[in-house]
Write a structure and sequence with these properties.
With 322 residues, the chain is mainly alpha-helical. The protein is 76% helix and 2% strand. It is globular and about 55 Å long.
């Protein structure tokens, strides 16, 4: 019992230390970019930064759940694009923003459930399944409109991504709502406790009476739901359903989650830390763009951050490659 308490305490200390490092890094970045450009710390740019990270933030919330249970989903970017273009197609067919909203989210959820079924029912490897399905969803996205974008001209739908309430973009409220729900779910519900248990040790969770397959099915389906919400938000922001939406979302989301304190070996995750990781990546993108740094260098920086995040996970005691 004492050893268990000690392990829990050590995890809490590590997570707190990780969050502290993230906050300090954010502060240093803000100081650097503020010194380099007078436009960085303006209210309009801060709101713009938050709006820019909302789609990635929602996707990353779903990836947090996946990594918590010791798995990976490489298809969330494709599911994001799939949901967005179907939302646009539904609106084009019905001229109803509600059909586009609900339909787009349901498409993402269904895609996640299909992934979940292959992983939990057919017992297939999550990495291979989601990698393969990523290509499938990308193909379906391109087949829907012959590889071209579908414009959205419904103002009610575009309000989701472009509208403001009290001068704050609506998508920021959506992202914050998603994170509040997930924080409460993981902390105060039986399902949340089961998810942590499955990530810590699936075999031990099974012996303790937890339906591991059911938990994993729900987690992968929820990742699809998050991708669906993100896809609808992205389509609303840009005013169209595009086949290139979410191209970099998967890798960015994994980097944000690991930077936020999650372990790739499972059992450890921090939703608030994920949000800080998302904001860190968004700050780098926003700051470099303001400074006029080419997007090619931004790709180099983000790739390096992903490698660094994995290195940090290993240093924290995550799974090592032997």
């Amino acid at each position: 019992m004492e050893k268990k308490k000690e392990n829990v305490f050590q995890k809490m200390v590590l997570q707190f230390g990780n969050l502290l490092v993230l906050v300090l890094t954010m502060v240093l970045l803000f100081i650097f970019f503020a010194v380099q450009s007078k436009y960085f710390l303006t209210v309009s740019n801060m709101l713009n930064l938050l709006q820019q990270v909302c789609v990635l933030g929602i996707v990353s919330a779903g990836i947090t759940l996946i990594i918590l249970t010791g798995s990976l989903d490489l298809s969330v970017g494709s599911m994001l694009a799939l949901s967005g273009i179907f939302a646009a197609w539904f609106i084009q067919m019905t001229d109803s923003w509600m059909v586009g909203l609900v339909g787009g989210i349901l498409v993402g959820t269904l895609a996640g459930a299909i992934n979940a079924a292959m992983i939990t029912v057919l017992k297939m490897n999550p990495l291979i399944v989601t990698l393969g399905m990523s290509t499938v969803w990308e193909g379906v996205t391109k087949l829907l409109n012959n590889g071209t974008a579908i414009g959205i001209f419904n103002n009610e739908f575009k309000f989701i991504g472009q509208g403001r309430i009290l001068n704050v973009p609506v998508v920021i409220f959506i992202m914050v709502g998603v994170y509040i729900v997930l924080i409460l779910m993981l902390k105060y519900t039986k399902f949340g406790r089961n998810a942590y248990a499955v990530g810590g040790s699936a075999k031990a969770a099974l012996y303790s009476g937890i339906n591991v397959s059911k938990v994993r099915f729900a987690i992968f389906t929820m990742a699809g739901l998050m991708a669906g919400i993100a896809g609808v938000c992205y389509a609303s922001i840009v005013g169209s359903g595009t086949v290139t939406a979410g191209a970099d979302s998967t890798m960015d989301a994994i980097a944000a989650v690991v930077l936020g304190g999650a372990s790739l070996s499972g059992g450890v995750a921090n939703i608030f830390g994920t949000l800080l990781g998302v904001l860190l990546l968004g700050t780098i993108d926003n700051g470099l763009s303001i400074l006029g740094v080419t997007s090619y260098w931004q790709l180099v920086v983000k790739g390096a951050i992903l490698i660094f995040a994995v290195f940090v996970d290993v240093m924290r005691g995550g799974e090592k490659y032997e």
